[in-house]
User: Fold this.
Amino acid sequence: MNWIVTCDGHEASLEFPTHADYEIERIAHSLAQINRFNGHAARPYSVAEHSLLVCDIAKTKLGLDAHGQMAALMHDAHEAFVGDVTSPMKGLLGSPMCRIEMRHANLMSLRYGYHVAMTVNAYELKLADLMALAVERAALLPHQKPCGTPSTPWPCLDVASNPCMRGWWDDLMGAHRVEATWQTWRDRFIRRFQELQFERAELSHHRLGSAFAEEAV
Assistant:
């Protein structure tokens, strides 16, 4: 058996996915219930909430346009089908896991048309993801081992050590986040997706209009 049953009863193949598998409602429903850090965070912290944080960083800190923000929002969307496997475990699983992830991620990016933005903004998207991880590490995970010694540093976060992110640490433990339900994050994810779909359409319309205007001249 190499397929899963989604929240609406659809059966999706893990090995041979199709565009029809990737309904945004299915994606949001799943991501809002998948906890990051294998559930070891100070509170339930979902992939959907993480994705919204990365999208926010991409917009407010890195200045990406709607296309880049959509790529940021959807950068982990494939996990709705393959699960959120921690980076250390991915290292143990090796290339087979990476191939499955890439198969779903690439097909999903083609379905929703952000594959170019993923490539063009690859560095910025990785940085936004690391900046979000640095905030999450500081706000949601212990800073010391049971014996009282400091936790081992995560080398991957060196590039994301940014003082301007310090205020966001407290926000992740704010009541407006802690008290939110998984349904709240599902709905916020869908709403942000819809907003970016509209903004991307406006950008495309504007660029098309500019191109016609230049040809007329």
Summary: The longest strand covers residues 3-5. The two ends are 60 Å apart (CA to CA).
